[in-house]
UniProtKB/TrEMBL annotation:
GO molecular function: ATP binding; ATP hydrolysis activity
Protein name stated in the entry: ABC transporter ATP-binding protein
NCBIfam families the record matches: sufC
Superkingdom field: Bacteria
Species per Swiss-Prot/TrEMBL record: Planotetraspora mira
First and last residue of the signal peptide: none
Amino acid sequence: MPTLEIRDLHVAVGDKEILRGVDLTVRSGETHAIMGPNGSGKSTLAYALAGHPKYTITSGTVLLDGEDLLEMKVDERARAGLFLAMQYPVEVPGVSVSNFLRSAITAVRGEAPKLREFAKDLKAGMDALSIDPAFAQRNTNEGFSGGEKKRHEILQLELLKPKIAILDETDSGLDVDALRVVSEGINRFRGLDASGADTGSGVDTGVLLITHYTRILRYVKPDFVHVFAAGRIVEEGGPELAEKLENEGYEAYTKASA
Ligand code: ADP
Ligand code: MG
Ligand code: MG
């Protein structure tokens, strides 16, 4: 069973310590929400796990299926089954969405998908996310609206089928309709129907859903909620914790950790 195990992770940018001892275990099939105020280190956790060179691991361990993730190069992490949807996705000029996705699948699987199978999966994924067919020929992320960027992320999820997916602020900048489409995409990927019931068809992926706002959690029900403040997890609970945050905000946590 795929498991991501983060133990006492400390991360610095330059000489500034940002993560100050994060402990978190994500098992396949589980959805964890990481919530917290701006600047609490949520994206830093995502970047550190993805192997971004700016983020220095100063101590701690991260295991993916028992293997040392921190020893792996960025492409090895993707091959090992880790997927990161960025808060600010980069433009890839001159590379169409279709080619970008086919290259990504090739990188993860170690071999190119058959063209016919890829075209079929791509069409099914785009249909499910209400994406216009012409989208596949556009340059990756170039001039994408907020909604298009996020749909593209979920399309990547559906095609790559990672073991662990980290979604950083996938809900930011979405209007209500786009939020619903994106949330339904995540739920379909988790093997849940619109009512949250198990359809038995999902991939057993562990999802780490990083968000500042509670609204996406109305559609994507987390199994666990973790509150981040000043670089560590300061409270943990079930979905009811998200409701408490919705009502009370982060003030109690930012005061306590200041
Ligand atoms: P969140 O995603 O919770 O809003 P971040 O992880 O983006 O928080 O940021 C946490 C802290 O680390 C902030 O004080 C931020 O300024 C700092 N930080 C994050 N990334 C960098 C970076 N690349 N360079 C300098 N400071 C950074
Ligand atoms: Mg520590
Ligand atoms: Mg962030």
